[in-house]
């Protein structure tokens, strides 16, 4: 069945649900196994033969590929002093280049039908959003527009998108010394909405007493990831390819792992294939299901910036943890996880306040001295020193 944006996905979703009942589905790599309804985030890293093909450069000649730069960091942190770590980030290196890199990001609005309830980011929501269309609000947010002048840890890093502001602040000691013209911009393009109707076996409706909506949607994350990987090839004629990022916008719909009580995953980023295709679903919440920590663009800001600094989902770091959503130790460069649930002060553009998550700097993972703006280790100053040894 050929898939394209705008098609109703009811038949494919129903077929998929039947398969899932009797098949073993690969699990998303978890970053927090807490069995509750706290907001958390996941990653689906490039692995196995796909990772080997990427590392060996075994991709068809002339295939589009994501613009990335390779770094090698030498740790100064206790327990890993002198150890070197190599990884990839999107764009050009702030250590060796200047100027602007631009990467295309496609946004696919997902209309989700769970039973008799429809969650549609392309329709005005009078109950939760004052009659505003969520997709329109996203288009005028500081994730997309360049209207807001970001001052990070007392440093004016410029009027730009949040992802670019973060990356400039992340490596401020490098980019400011080159005249401050380094930018990593994202060119957002919007595709027609796609409708999915997951079966009862892989979906749920959460009751939400006291909120603006009576019900909040849920989809099992492993089944959902399978759906996305079936959808993505059909978006190729519309421009989606390994040279760009494709994102999927959920509206007041969250993800859960295996059972509805193991909730809630606000979003994740992933990579698969050779050449590598990167992708990321994120939810846009206007109901306050998680309080302000997950409102509007907070979840998107977490995922887009993690993709920017860890596009393959497996950049290695010294062990860190016992902070943010992480109760144990992790060893990957996920800049959002250490500060999950911690936002910057709300930013008002036009008539709307937008929420953006605070993010950890590169130097927090690998050790000081900090390369980040203001000599801090996160972009709102919560981290004033690098992570210590994790045990």
Features:
19% helix; two-stranded antiparallel sheet; alpha/beta; 391 residues
Notes on the structure:
This protein has 391 residues and is an alpha/beta fold. It has one domain. Helix content is 19%, strand content 31%. It has 9 helices and 20 strands. The strands form 5 sheets. Strands 1, 4, 5, 8, 9, 10, 11, 12, 13, 14 and 15 form an 11-stranded mixed beta sheet that branches. A two-stranded antiparallel ribbon has the order 2-3. A hairpin with a 2-residue loop joins strand 19 and strand 20. The longest helix has 13 residues. It is globular and about 55 Å long. The N and C termini lie far apart (49 Å). The N terminus is likely disordered.
* Separation of the first and last Cα atoms: 49 Å
Number of domains: 1
Order of helices and strands: HEHEEEEHHEEHHEEEEHEEEEEHEEEEH
- Structural class of the secondary structure composition? alpha/beta
In what range is the share of β-strand residues?
A: 25-35%
Approximate helicity band: 10-25%
Give the CA-based shape: globular
Total number of helices: 9
Mean pLDDT figure: 90
Query: For the report, how would you describe the main beta sheet?
Result: 11 strands, mixed
Give the strand tally: 20
Radius of gyration: 20 Å
* Stretches with pLDDT under 50, minimum 5 residues: 1-36
